[in-house]
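Running this now, will post back.
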Amino acid sequence: MKIRLFTRKDSTQIQSVARESWRYAYEGLIPQQTQVDFLLSVYNEDALMKGLSTSVLFVAEEKGEVIGFVHFSLINIKKEIELGALYILPRFHRQGIGTALLKAMFDYFKGIRKITVSVVMQNDAAIDFYHSKGFKQVGEMNDSIYGFSIPTIVMEWGSNTRPNV
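Update: finished.
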Protein backbone atom coordinates (compact mmCIF):
# COMPACT_ATOMS: atom_id res chain seq x y z
CA MET A 1 0.00 0.00 0.00
CA LYS A 2 1.17 3.50 -0.82
CA ILE A 3 0.08 6.79 0.80
CA ARG A 4 0.46 9.87 -1.40
CA LEU A 5 -1.01 13.27 -2.07
CA PHE A 6 -4.20 13.45 -4.16
CA THR A 7 -3.96 14.40 -7.83
CA ARG A 8 -6.72 15.38 -10.27
CA LYS A 9 -6.65 11.92 -11.86
CA ASP A 10 -7.84 10.45 -8.53
CA SER A 11 -11.17 12.34 -8.59
CA THR A 12 -13.33 9.53 -9.97
CA GLN A 13 -11.88 6.98 -7.58
CA ILE A 14 -12.30 9.37 -4.61
CA GLN A 15 -15.98 9.70 -5.53
CA SER A 16 -16.29 5.92 -5.64
CA VAL A 17 -14.60 5.44 -2.24
CA ALA A 18 -16.82 8.12 -0.66
CA ARG A 19 -19.99 6.66 -2.19
CA GLU A 20 -19.24 3.08 -1.11
CA SER A 21 -18.10 4.19 2.36
CA TRP A 22 -21.24 6.25 2.92
CA ARG A 23 -23.51 3.46 1.70
CA TYR A 24 -21.79 1.06 4.10
CA ALA A 25 -21.71 3.39 7.14
CA TYR A 26 -25.01 5.25 6.77
CA GLU A 27 -27.46 2.69 5.36
CA GLY A 28 -30.69 3.32 7.23
CA LEU A 29 -29.29 6.43 8.95
CA ILE A 30 -29.13 8.94 6.11
CA PRO A 31 -31.61 8.71 3.22
CA GLN A 32 -30.10 7.41 -0.02
CA GLN A 33 -31.00 10.53 -2.04
CA THR A 34 -29.46 12.80 0.61
CA GLN A 35 -26.26 10.75 0.40
CA VAL A 36 -26.20 10.97 -3.40
CA ASP A 37 -26.86 14.73 -3.46
CA PHE A 38 -24.21 15.48 -0.83
CA LEU A 39 -21.53 13.27 -2.36
CA LEU A 40 -22.09 14.68 -5.85
CA SER A 41 -21.70 18.22 -4.55
CA VAL A 42 -18.62 17.62 -2.38
CA TYR A 43 -16.68 15.00 -4.31
CA ASN A 44 -16.99 16.17 -7.91
CA GLU A 45 -13.70 17.04 -9.60
CA ASP A 46 -14.23 20.82 -9.50
CA ALA A 47 -15.09 20.83 -5.78
CA LEU A 48 -12.11 18.62 -4.96
CA MET A 49 -9.68 20.80 -6.88
CA LYS A 50 -11.12 24.03 -5.45
CA GLY A 51 -10.93 22.60 -1.92
CA LEU A 52 -7.21 21.96 -2.24
CA SER A 53 -6.58 25.69 -1.88
CA THR A 54 -7.50 25.40 1.81
CA SER A 55 -7.09 21.71 2.60
CA VAL A 56 -4.95 18.61 2.05
CA LEU A 57 -6.05 15.23 0.74
CA PHE A 58 -3.97 12.05 0.94
CA VAL A 59 -4.97 8.82 -0.78
CA ALA A 60 -4.16 5.23 0.08
CA GLU A 61 -3.44 3.27 -3.08
CA GLU A 62 -3.14 -0.45 -3.64
CA LYS A 63 -2.07 -1.74 -7.09
CA GLY A 64 -3.16 1.52 -8.76
CA GLU A 65 -6.57 1.59 -7.02
CA VAL A 66 -7.49 4.31 -4.53
CA ILE A 67 -8.79 2.36 -1.52
CA GLY A 68 -9.11 5.19 0.98
CA PHE A 69 -8.41 8.83 1.69
CA VAL A 70 -8.10 11.44 4.41
CA HIS A 71 -9.13 15.07 3.88
CA PHE A 72 -8.17 17.74 6.41
CA SER A 73 -7.68 21.48 6.82
CA LEU A 74 -5.45 23.63 8.96
CA ILE A 75 -7.99 25.91 10.63
CA ASN A 76 -5.68 28.42 12.32
CA ILE A 77 -2.06 29.36 12.96
CA LYS A 78 -2.12 27.48 16.26
CA LYS A 79 -1.77 24.25 14.24
CA GLU A 80 -5.32 23.12 14.89
CA ILE A 81 -6.78 20.83 12.25
CA GLU A 82 -10.28 19.91 11.19
CA LEU A 83 -10.47 16.34 9.92
CA GLY A 84 -13.19 16.47 7.29
CA ALA A 85 -13.15 12.89 6.02
CA LEU A 86 -11.41 9.59 6.52
CA TYR A 87 -12.92 6.93 4.28
CA ILE A 88 -11.69 3.43 3.51
CA LEU A 89 -13.39 0.97 1.17
CA PRO A 90 -15.21 -1.50 3.45
CA ARG A 91 -13.34 -4.54 2.11
CA PHE A 92 -10.09 -2.90 3.32
CA HIS A 93 -11.25 -2.11 6.87
CA ARG A 94 -9.11 -3.27 9.82
CA GLN A 95 -5.91 -3.47 7.76
CA GLY A 96 -4.15 -0.39 9.17
CA ILE A 97 -5.05 1.92 6.30
CA GLY A 98 -6.89 4.48 8.43
CA THR A 99 -3.97 4.54 10.84
CA ALA A 100 -1.51 5.03 7.97
CA LEU A 101 -3.59 7.92 6.61
CA LEU A 102 -3.70 9.59 10.04
CA LYS A 103 0.07 9.13 10.34
CA ALA A 104 0.51 10.86 6.96
CA MET A 105 -1.53 13.78 8.32
CA PHE A 106 0.62 13.99 11.47
CA ASP A 107 3.78 13.81 9.38
CA TYR A 108 2.54 16.51 6.99
CA PHE A 109 1.72 18.99 9.77
CA LYS A 110 4.53 18.78 12.29
CA GLY A 111 3.57 19.99 15.76
CA ILE A 112 -0.20 19.55 15.47
CA ARG A 113 -1.83 20.85 18.65
CA LYS A 114 -5.43 19.79 18.14
CA ILE A 115 -7.54 17.80 15.69
CA THR A 116 -11.32 18.02 15.63
CA VAL A 117 -13.59 15.58 13.80
CA SER A 118 -17.39 15.26 13.66
CA VAL A 119 -18.78 11.72 13.56
CA VAL A 120 -22.35 10.57 12.98
CA MET A 121 -23.54 9.45 16.41
CA GLN A 122 -24.55 5.95 15.29
CA ASN A 123 -21.32 5.28 13.37
CA ASP A 124 -19.89 3.05 16.11
CA ALA A 125 -17.00 1.75 13.98
CA ALA A 126 -15.71 5.29 13.35
CA ILE A 127 -16.19 6.33 16.96
CA ASP A 128 -14.28 3.25 18.16
CA PHE A 129 -11.50 3.93 15.64
CA TYR A 130 -11.02 7.52 16.78
CA HIS A 131 -11.13 6.50 20.46
CA SER A 132 -8.39 3.95 19.75
CA LYS A 133 -6.26 6.76 18.28
CA GLY A 134 -6.55 8.94 21.37
CA PHE A 135 -9.55 11.10 20.43
CA LYS A 136 -12.08 12.04 23.12
CA GLN A 137 -15.70 13.08 22.76
CA VAL A 138 -16.02 16.79 23.55
CA GLY A 139 -19.55 17.58 22.43
CA GLU A 140 -22.68 16.77 20.49
CA MET A 141 -24.58 18.65 17.82
CA ASN A 142 -27.13 18.22 15.08
CA ASP A 143 -25.55 18.52 11.67
CA SER A 144 -27.72 19.11 8.62
CA ILE A 145 -27.26 17.86 5.07
CA TYR A 146 -29.79 19.15 2.57
CA GLY A 147 -32.29 19.68 5.38
CA PHE A 148 -31.83 16.23 6.91
CA SER A 149 -30.79 16.45 10.58
CA ILE A 150 -27.98 14.14 11.67
CA PRO A 151 -27.07 13.67 15.36
CA THR A 152 -23.30 14.05 15.50
CA ILE A 153 -20.61 13.87 18.13
CA VAL A 154 -17.55 16.08 18.11
CA MET A 155 -14.28 14.34 18.93
CA GLU A 156 -10.94 15.91 19.61
CA TRP A 157 -7.32 14.88 19.88
CA GLY A 158 -5.01 17.23 21.76
CA SER A 159 -1.24 17.41 21.87
CA ASN A 160 -1.33 16.53 25.57
CA THR A 161 -2.01 12.93 24.50
CA ARG A 162 0.19 10.85 22.27
CA PRO A 163 -1.48 9.84 18.99
CA ASN A 164 -1.83 6.11 18.51
CA VAL A 165 -0.63 6.03 14.90
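The first strand starts at residue 2 and ends at 5. More later if anyone needs it.
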